[in-house]
């Protein structure tokens, strides 16, 4: 029996690859073992090769940066409990292999749970925002469905956009992308889907933005439909003239409607003599139109609209808090000369940025341009792909993935000279992020033995990138470890940061291919401001952002003050 076991072990510790049908290449399969540095740390915090509960608590506080007390004691107990079923666990405590398994487990992730103060007005938060949330694919010809709405809500998206159009008989409302070949889905189906899944992932409010192209009678029909479906879930403000939006905490479990008011639609139809925007009084509408729009008007808790005239008019702070929408191109153009005005506007009002109309393939743009100017609703095509979507997903992994991320104080403060944050100003280095990439594991389990290379084990390297304000953007990479499913890099990188509050850490694993067409080995994006210091297990994800079951990296994070 012992001989059989040894033979099986020997067989499992090697991998064979056929070459030209005649030859076999044989490679030793490396098992994930604690890097030497991890062993040194373990023996520093253990006694006679065993780490007791008290030893583990000491490690969590002194090395991992936990605060201590009951929370740390409970965390240590949960770690012990999670390892009891393994053969490597000992009653007296953890030995080095069990300690290593803990470090690579989900108990040791790099981010914290919900911890931001949720009692500030909505304008003080970034909101996870979708664009044309009903589309399943491109912006021109893809089907419309409730499926992408449900999927977005399950991922924590808090702002859903619906385009409202009359049907061919003008007696009902449907949702589709106007002027394109996209199919339609009934508004009622979309609203029911939102009701069923709005709070499946996060308890914080869902905002539905209507881009409506419907007549006053159909607006009344929408009002009745919304009231019937959402009932008490629907938030109705006490006043139509809100000076400050409520907080996410106040709005837990509520649905908010944001769109242009009937008066705004009518004002757009009426030409003012001096060609300047004015909000029409009730006298501008006849009694029938006013009555038609009453119920629809009462739905709106976040009023939207773009005043006529030059963009300077758009950014004026009125007594009433409101939402302004700009295309990505409009934002870039205005930001060149009026960046601080945008920041000041977003301290009280909501700013929504949406993709330019030429993105028919549902691609996305750089969200950092919006965030660094305080834009709360940076609307994305969630069905798209690419690295910008990964940055968006990374930002909203902050605060426990609840869909609301507190804006940093630098975007909300006004100094003694009445100045606000200037996104274009040069800034000194605030801190340095040190990233030590130890090792990785799990590819053989998640990908299969010949996924990367038919003739040998994979050759992995790690790319580490900072995406933030332009001065902070940087990229580095490890050396390539050849023919190894469990690569150990043990390389450290330093990233000086001027605005660490907005920085994102993007990590990507590449499998080198001598043909030049390298393979994708996983990625993740993490908000730098949320990183927990210490040695952490970083789970990698596929191109769409879904986590792999086994693939992860062991990385140490540390923040150092900038010493001139």
From TrEMBL:
Record bears the keyword Lyase: no
Membrane topology classification: Peripheral membrane protein
GO terms, molecular function: phosphatidylinositol-4,5-bisphosphate phospholipase C activity
UniProt-listed Gene3D superfamilies: C2 domain (2.60.40.150), EF-hand (1.10.238.10), Phosphatidylinositol (PI) phosphodiesterase (3.20.20.190)
Protein localization: Cell membrane
Keywords carried by this UniProt record: Cell membrane, Hydrolase, Lipid degradation, Lipid metabolism, Membrane, Transducer
Cofactor requirement: Ca(2+)
Database matches in Pfam families: C2, EF-hand_like, PI-PLC-X, PI-PLC-Y
Domain C2: 406-542
Protein name in the entry: Phosphoinositide phospholipase C
Lineage start: Eukaryota, Viridiplantae, Streptophyta, Embryophyta, Tracheophyta
């Amino acid at each position: 029996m012992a001989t059989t076991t040894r033979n099986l072990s020997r067989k499992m510790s090697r991998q064979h690859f056929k070459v030209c049908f005649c030859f076999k290449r044989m490679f030793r399969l490396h098992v994930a073992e604690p890097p030497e540095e991890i062993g040194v740390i373990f023996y520093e915090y253990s006694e006679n090769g065993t780490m007791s509960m008290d030893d583990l608590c000491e490690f969590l506080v002194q090395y991992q940066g936990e605060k201590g007390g009951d929370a740390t004691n409970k965390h240590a107990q949960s770690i012990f409990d999670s390892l009891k079923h393994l053969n490597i666990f000992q009653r007296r405590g953890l030995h080095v292999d069990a300690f290593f398994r803990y470090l690579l487990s989900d108990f040791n992730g790099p981010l914290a749970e919900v911890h931001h103060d949720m009692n500030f007005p909505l304008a003080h938060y970034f909101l996870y925002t979708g664009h044309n949330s009903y589309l399943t694919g491109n912006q021109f010809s893809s089907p419309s469905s409730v499926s992408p709405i449900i999927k977005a809500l399950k991922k924590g998206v808090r702002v859903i956009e619906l385009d409202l159009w009359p049907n061919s008989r003008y007696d009902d409302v449907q949702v589709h992308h106007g002027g394109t070949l996209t199919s339609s889905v009934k508004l009622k189906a979309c609203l029911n889907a939102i009701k069923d899944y709005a709070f499946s992932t996060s308890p914080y409010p869902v905002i539905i933005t209507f881009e409506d192209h419907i007549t006053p009678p159909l607006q009344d029909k929408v009002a009745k439909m919304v009231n019937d479906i959402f009932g008490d879930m629907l938030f109705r403000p006490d006043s139509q003239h809100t000076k400050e939006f409520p907080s996410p905490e106040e709005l837990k479990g509520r649905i908010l409607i944001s769109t242009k008011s009937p008066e705004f639609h009518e004002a757009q139809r009426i030409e003012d003599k001096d060609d300047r925007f004015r909000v029409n009084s009730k006298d501008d509408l006849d009694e029938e139109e006013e009555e038609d729009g009453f119920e629809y008007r009462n739905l709106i808790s976040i009023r939207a609209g773009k005043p006529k005239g030059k963009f300077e008019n758009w950014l004026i702070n009125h007594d009433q808090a409101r939402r302004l929408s700009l295309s990505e191109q409009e934002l870039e153009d205005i930001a060149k000369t009026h960046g601080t005005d945008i920041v000041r506007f977003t301290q009280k009002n909501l700013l929504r940025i949406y993709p330019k109309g030429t993105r028919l393939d549902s691609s996305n743009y750089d969200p950092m341009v919006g965030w660094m100017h305080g834009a709360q609703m940076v609307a994305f095509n969630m069905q798209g792909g690419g690295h910008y979507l990964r940055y968006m997903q990374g930002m909203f992994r902050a605060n426990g993935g609840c869909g609301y991320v507190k804006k940093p104080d630098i975007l909300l403060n006004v100094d003694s000279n009445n100045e606000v944050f200037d996104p274009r100003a040069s800034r000194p280095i605030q801190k340095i992020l040190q990233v030590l990439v130890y090792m990785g594991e799990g590819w053989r389990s998640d990908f299969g033995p010949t996924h990367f290379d038919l003739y040998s084990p994979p050759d992995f390297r790690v790319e580490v990138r900072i995406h933030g304000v332009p001065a902070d953007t940087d990229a580095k990479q490890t050396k390539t470890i050849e023919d190894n499913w469990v690569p150990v890099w043990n390389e450290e990188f330093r990233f000086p940061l001027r605005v660490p509050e907005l920085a994102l850490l993007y990590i990507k694993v590449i499998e080198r291919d001598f043909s030049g067409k390298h393979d994708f080995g996983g990625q993740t994006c993490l908000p730098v401001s949320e990183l927990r210091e210490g040695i952490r297990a970083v789970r990698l994800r596929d191109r769409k952002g879904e986590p792999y079951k086994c693939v992860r990296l062991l990385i140490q994070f540390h923040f150092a003050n900038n010493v001139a």
